[in-house]
Design a protein that fits this description.
The chain is 37% helix and 21% strand. The protein has helices at residues 5-11, 13-21, 45-58, 79-87, 106-114, 120-126, and strands spanning 25-32, 35-42, 65-71, 96-99, 142-145.
């Protein structure tokens, strides 16, 4: 049975969340040899290890994923993104926070956090104080991601 990219992306959604919230720059994400193939650069060894820790939580055997991350300090997220990652587990009652990265859209963020891109309005509604249009988000903006 050939692996399906969408199925594997859903299976590894928590890994993709760590990648996105940690500022890892992916250069490739596709199916190769019936495995989810991820290749990119992490800003530090600690971020790379966090990604691998999450992969092992999802599938300790890691037999359906190949993750080739290099460490590139220039790929490190800006301090605001690091703060957002730290507060993501804070539990303020408002939900997590996420710092918008270049290339993000609300639907892409919704897909990563909820597994469903059509949930983007949930994020928009929670951030109406910062956003006037769901199609107009900017890198560096800190958004609340409701539970």
């Amino acid at each position: 049975m050939a692996a399906d990219l969408e199925q594997l992306k859903q299976k590894y959604a928590s890994v993709l969340n760590v990648i996105n919230s940690s500022g890892v720059k992916l250069s490739h994400m596709h199916i190769q040899d019936d495995k989810l193939f991820l290749q990119g650069a992490a800003g530090s060894e600690a971020i790379k290890n966090r990604v691998w820790d999450e992969i092992k939580k999802v599938n300790p055997a890691a037999n359906d994923i190949t993750c080739d991350l290099t460490v590139d300090p220039t790929a490190a997220p800006p301090p605001a993104a690091a703060a957002a990652t730290a507060s993501a587990s804070g539990g303020s009652g408002r939900g997590r926070t996420y710092t918008v990265a270049a290339g993000d859209s609300l639907s892409k963020i919704a897909k990563n956090f909820y597994g469903n891109a059509s949930q983007y309005m949930k994020i928009f509604e929670a951030n109406k104080d910062k956003l006037s249009d769901p199609d107009k988000i900017k890198p560096g903006q800190e958004l609340v991601i409701p539970e």
